[in-house]
Amino acid sequence: MFDPIQRKSLLIISIALVAVWHTYRLPLLGLVAVVLVLHAYRQLQSKSKTPASASVPPSPRALSPSPDAKFSATESEPSTWATKEIKKPVPSVNGNPPTVGPKRVQGKKPAKTIGKRRESEEKIQPITHIQPIIFFASLTTTTERYANVLLEDLRAAAQDQADPETRASGLLPPQIHDISYIDFDDFFLSVPKPPSTSPGTRYVYCILVPTYNIDTVLNTFLGHLDETHNDFRIDTAPLSQLAGYSVFGFGDKEEWPTEEEGFCTQAKDIDRWMAKLTGRKRVYPLGLGDVKSDAASALKEWTKGLQDIFSDILKTGGLGEGVEGSGDAVESDEEDFDENEPKFQKDKAQTMVDLEDIKVNSNSAAPVPVDFTTVGKSVVSEPTAKEMVPKTSPTYAALTKQGYTIVGSHSGVKICRWTKSALRGRGSCYKFSFYGIRSHLCMEATPSLSCSNKCIFCWRHGTNPVGTTWRWKVDSPEMIFNGVKEGHYKKIKLMRAVPGVRAERFAEAMRIRHCALSLVGEPIFYPHINRFLDMLHAEHISSFLVCNAQHPDQLEALKRVTQLYVSIDASDRESPRKIDRPLHRDFWERFQRCLDILREKRHVQRTVFRLTLVKGFNVDDAVIGYANLVEKALPCFVEIKGVTYCGTSTSAGAGLTMQNVPFYEEITSFVVALNAELERRGLGYGIAAEHAHSCCVLLASDRFHVNGKWHTRIDYERFFELLEREEADGTSFTPEDYMRETEEWALWGRGGFDPNDERVYRKGRNKGKTIGAAPEPTASPAS
Ligand SMILES: Cc1cc2nc3c(=O)[nH]c(=O)nc-3n(C[C@H](O)[C@H](O)[C@H](O)COP(=O)(O)O)c2cc1C
Ligand code: SF4
Question: Where are the chain's structural domains?
Answer without folding.
Answer: 113-332, 342-377+390-769
